[in-house]
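User: Okay, second chain of the day. Same drill as before: sequence in, structure tokens out.
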Amino acid sequence: MAISATAADARVQDVQVSEDALIVILRDGRKVSAPLSWFPRLKAASSNQRKIWELSAAGHGIHWPHIDEDLSVEGLLQGNAAPNA
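Assistant: Same drill. Structure tokens below.
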């Protein structure tokens, strides 16, 4: 029996922020979502501020420059809310 293994690639491919959730799509196809209430700065930001993000930590992190928010993929995968959330 042949087993096909796909290499995990936990780097960020895309980020979507709705009124209720943060959704991070990883390069290996996984989607990680969390309630927006876990991230007070993102929740308080305007929709335009939420749309402007950039990769950090070689793709293992996300930075929103207009609200000075940084999140790591590792933290999202572990289910960690932002400090003081």
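Residues 73-78 form the longest helix (6 residues).

User: Thanks, on to the next one.
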